[in-house]
Amino acid sequence: MQPFCKACGQPIWGRCLNALNANWHPEHFVCAGCGRPIDAASFQMHQGAPYHIQCHTNLIAPRCAYCARPMTNTFLVDYWGTHFCPEHQREYPPCTYCGRLIPPQQLEQPPAEAIRCPVCRSTAIETAQDARPFFNNVKQWISSQGLVYNNLPLSLQICGKTRLAEMLQDRGPTHAHGATVSSTTYDHNGRAVYNEIKGVAVLRGLPATLFQGVTVHELGHVWLIIHNIQGQPQWAEEGFCELLSYRLYQALNTPESQYHIQSIEQNLDPIYGEGFRRIRHRAEQLGWPHFLEAVRTTRRLLL
Ligand SMILES: [Zn+2]
Ligand SMILES: [Zn+2]
Ligand SMILES: [Zn+2]
Ligand SMILES: [Zn+2]
Ligand SMILES: [Zn+2]
C-alpha cells in the first residue's frame, strides 16, 4: 500500500522518511524551531515536536543564568532554582546571606562588609528607619509566642561589624549578626548581680528576613536575662534562641525564610545546631506554651 505523509496527507511516491511512528515526505519532516527539513537520523523532541539538535540547543535547552550559554551537558542548580554552568561555582563568590553566586558585574561597588547578592541588597536593612517596621513586627510576633518583657522599652541598634564585635567580646564568631545590649554589675566575688538590658544590636545590611530572624534570636537572650534564667549551658541557651528564629521563619513562610529554616536544621555546629535540635525536641514533647511556662517557672532550659 502506498504510504501517506503525516504532514500533508498526500501519498509518498519517492523517498519515504520514517520517524515518530509515521511516514513523511523528507521535505515535510521539519524542525519546529526553524521550519527546515530534518534530514538527519538524530533530532531532539520537545513537547511532542522534533527539532534539529542545534535548534534545540539554541532555542529550547535551558540557558545558564549567569553567562546565558545553553546548558546541554551538566549544570548545577542552587537552592533558589537558578541553573548555571558548573565552572561558575569556582569562579564566583557566594552571597554571605543566601548562597547565590555573584558574577563580577553584580558585585557591590564599593564592597560592603559582607559579600551580598543583588537580591539580598534589595531588602537590606541599612538604617534604624529601615528596621522599624520589621522590628515592630518581630516584637509583635514574639509577644504572640508568650514571651513577655515586663514592659521593658526594647531598643534596637543597627551597627557595623567592628561595633558589633566589641559588644560580643568573647561570644565568638558564630554570633556574628547580632548582640544583646546590656550592662552587668558584679559583686565583690565577681558574680553578676544586676543586668541592665537596653535591647538588641543587629548587624547593618542584613536582608529583611534574616534581620528578623537575628532580632528574634537576640530577643530570646534578652527574655532569658530578664526572667533570670541564667547559667544555662551555652548549647541550651543558643538552642532556645535558634528555636525562636526557627519558629519565626516558619511563621513568615517565604522562600527566604525556608532557606533559613533549612540552614538552622542542617547546622552542624555543636552549640547552635545540636543545641537547637535538642531544645526543639523538648519543646515538641511538651508543646510550646507548656515548654515556655516550664522554662519560666523553673528558670531552667533543661527540664
Ligand atoms: Zn508531505
Ligand atoms: Zn531547525
Ligand atoms: Zn554559565
Ligand atoms: Zn544573597
Ligand atoms: Zn545567641
Could you walk me through the main structural features you see in this protein, from its secondary elements to its overall organization?
- The protein is α+β, with helices and mostly antiparallel strands and 303 residues long.
- It has 3 domains: 17-60, Cysteine Rich Protein; 62-122, no CATH class; 125-298, no CATH class.
- It contains 10 helices and 11 strands.
- Helix 4 packs across helix 6, helix 7 (234-252) runs antiparallel to helix 8 (255-265) and helix 7 packs across helix 9.
- The protein starts with 16 loop residues before the first strand and ends in a 5-residue tail after the last helix.
- The relative contact order is 0.08.
- The model has no long low-confidence stretch (mean pLDDT 91).
- The site of one zinc ion has 7 residues, from loops.
- One zinc ion (ZN) is lined by residues 64, 66-67, 69, 84-85, 88.
Write the layout of secondary structure elements.
Blueprint: E1 17-19, E2 22-24, E3 44-46, E4 49-51, H1 53-60, E5 76-77, E6 83-84, H2 88-91, H3 118-122, E7 124-125, H4 128-144, E8 155-159, H5 161-168, E9 178-186, E10 192-203, E11 206-207, H6 208-226, H7 234-252, H8 255-265, H9 272-286, H10 288-298
Parallel strand pairs: 8-10
Antiparallel strand pairs: 1-2, 3-4, 5-6, 7-11, 9-10
Helix pairs in contact: 4-6, 6-7, 7-8, 7-9, 9-10
The structure holds zinc ion (5 copies).
One zinc ion binds next to helix 3.
Annotation keywords:
single chain; 303 residues; alpha+beta; Cysteine Rich Protein; 3 domains; 3-stranded mixed sheet; two-stranded antiparallel ribbon; elongated; binds zinc ion
